[in-house]
Specification:
Radius of gyration: 25 Å
Shape: globular
Distance between the termini: 63 Å
Helix content: 25-40%
Strand content: 15-25%
């Protein structure tokens, strides 16, 4: 090759090499095109209805590197944004992403019930940006460090939203402080126990002694203990059901097997233990959280009394207790079976009152799926069918649709579904549209109505078993951002599942 030719070729080769270097360098990183449906790390969201801790504002949320850079009230000029990329949502609601502290994703071991991919896709489509996975119905239950590692392995590259994990408090580990500390050191956000049979062989029920031991260990970590508060009672009504006197296809028959007195008795036992959580108590620093309260009468009064005397205690309820009443459940419709059960209409109204008045602290889905065969939909036997309401994708529109009758506000929604759940789980950078927080945001239209029918895309593994199928709801989710990534928009998900596992430090 002559000298002149070399001078002509070398610059071309150099340019080609630079191009290849740039291509390899940029494509070797996780691409925002894969994790997010917008190719920007820095951008601004504007709306006339941004839900902040100080109230609803018209303004803008500036996002950079997955965090909220600033929240601006009033007119926003795109010239302020160095990226020049502004997403204007008009009148749509821009709210902190929902945090669901009570969801069963069932993987590993029962991914045919629900898995990380299907469950987190459903969550993203419903505006949920963080899930805390319950330690049961997966195989094995998350009662050991090894079981937690299996969870983490199953979740890797399969989660579209952030996912944290509760560990299990069971008789096997309750008196083994080393085992519990190992589980907490491995990163579970707290512990969960049942005071009645869970239906899962490797997750047996605990009693007050087990719970007391668990609280003493948790005190050092300042993490909560979540409790399913029902205890079994011997009564004439439950015995008559067992003897076949009542019709198993009738929901009233199932109600007799789990009366409100089961919740009341469990909570009375728990409140003897929560005395230790007060200032100066032997378990100070620990916290007890009662999951899915359904009894709005004596059980709730007991919780109010405990709060007033200084016990460290919170309580949640679920949308299905606020949407449905026992009177409307038809014979054989086992989609509505759950534990505790859905109670009467007056009880439902009182739950709404307690939620609005702050006596019930927060909401959770208790998304508890299974395969259709275990729901016994053809047989309609409430006593034998698997219990649990499949609801993950629907909880935001359900809460809004049924809550409007009770005059709920957007700020209340954010409190029940974002702020207080974040505090319970110790998620200090989540739960509010605040500078410095993760850019976890849901955008939704409160006036947009839709019917949950065959034309509505559901991402749950088995959507046909949901009690909400056939309902008309208001509140369509338009977009969901997780740590700044646009993971869901207009019925589509990002190409890659880039949610992060959350482990406590």
């Amino acid at each position: 090759m002559d000298l002149m030719m070399q001078w002509r070729v070398f610059p071309l080769l150099s340019l080609l090499a630079s191009f290849l270097f740039f291509y390899i360098k940029t494509s070797s990183k996780p691409s925002y095109n894969l994790c997010s449906m917008i190719p920007y790390d820095t951008y601004t969201i504007t709306s006339k209805n941004i839900v902040t801790p100080q109230g609803i504002i018209s303004g803008a949320v500036e996002v950079k590197g997955g965090y909220i850079l600033s929240v601006i009230k009033g007119n926003y000029s795109s010239g302020k944004d160095s990226s020049g990329f502004v997403i204007d949502y008009g009148d749509a609601v821009v709210m902190p992403g929902l945090i669901d502290v009570h969801s069963h994703l069932d993987e590993p071991g029962k991914s045919e019930w629900e898995g990380f991919e299907s469950g987190t896709k459903a969550a993203a489509a419903g505006g949920i940006t963080t899930l805390i996975d319950m330690p049961l119905n997966s195989v094995p239950s998350t009662v050991s460090v090894d079981a937690l590692r299996l969870k983490l392995d199953a979740a890797e590259e399969n989660i579209y939203v952030d996912v944290g994990f509760w560990g299990g408090l069971v008789p096997e580990n309750a008196f083994d402080a080393t085992a519990l500390k190992g589980l907490l050191d491995a990163g579970v956000l707290g512990l969960k126990s049942f005071m009645c049979p869970s239906g899962i062989d490797d997750f047996p029920m605990t009693n007050a002694s087990h719970i007391k031991e668990g609280l003493h260990v948790l005190a050092k970590y300042r993490r909560p203990l979540l409790v399913h508060a029902e205890v079994q009672l011997d009564s004439e009504s439950t015995e008559s059901v067992k003897d076949g006197v009542d019709d198993a296809r009738s929901y009233s028959t199932y109600l007799k097997t789990r009366p409100p007195s089961m919740e009341e008795a469990a909570i009375r036992e728990l409140l003897e233990v929560t005395k230790d959580t007060r200032a100066g108590g032997s378990a100070q620093g620990s916290h007890l959280h009662i999951v899915h309260l359904s009894d709005s009468r004596v059980s709730l009064d007991l919780i109010k009394t405990a709060k007033n005397r200084g016990d460290s205690i919170t309580v949640e309820t679920c949308p299905h207790y606020l949407a449905f009443s026992a009177e409307e459940i038809t014979d054989g419709d086992t989609r509505f079976k759950c534990a505790p059960p859905i109670r009467d209409a007056e009880n439902k109204d009182q739950l709404w009152d307690a939620l609005r008045d702050g006596h019930i602290d927060m909401l959770s889905s208790d998304h508890s799926p299974t395969v259709p065969a275990l729901k016994l939909l053809d047989e309609g036997d409430f006593l034998k069918a698997w219990g649990g309401i499949s609801s993950l994708q629907y909880v935001l529109p359900v809460t809004w649709s049924y809550g409007r009758k009770y005059g709920i506000s957007l700020n209340q929604l954010a409190t029940w579904w974002s702020d207080r759940p974040a505090k319970l789980a110790g998620l200090h950078l989540k739960g509010g549209i605040v500078s410095g927080n993760h850019a976890d945001i849901v955008v939704w239209d409160p006036e947009n109505e839709f019917v949950l029918d065959k034309n509505h895309t559901a991402y749950h593994k088995n959507p046909s078993i949901s009690a909400y199928i056939g309902k008309r709801l208001s509140g369509k989710v338009l977009a969901t951002y997780v740590r700044g990534n646009l993971v869901y928009k207009d019925g589509k998900h990002a190409h890659a599942a880039c949610g992060a596992p959350i482990l406590a430090n």
